[in-house]
Amino acid sequence: xxxxxxxxxxxxxxxxxxxxxxxxxxxxxxxxxxxxxxxxxxxxxxxxxxxxxxxxxxxxxxxxxxxxxxxxxxxxxxxxxxxxxxxxxxxxxxxxxxxxxxxxxxxxxxxxxxxxxxxxxxxxxx
Length: 126
Known about the structure:
Number of strands: 11
Largest sheet: 7 strands, mixed
Order of helices and strands: EEEEEEEEEEE
Strand content: 35-45%
């Protein structure tokens, strides 16, 4: 399986932006769907964005619409997540994940992803 490592988390002031990276151990475009997720303390893991294998039709969750950008650099085997206009509600552990197939109705369902990174903490506070 591909190995994933997230980075870029830390303390960010409200109104600021974050840019997270997820580096894969090998080239995965065309083989794996990739998604970004987050989990706040005491809450369920929720999907943020998704890019299908071999494509660029990025899907964003409604709660980040207009302030989120997911991108992929195939040459670096890396996907990125940029989230702007941060609020304390964005505080969470952020994960990237990969899966070979979408087996549920929701492409942002965590159950569609079998390979997960360790996560990177993001704290939004002044």
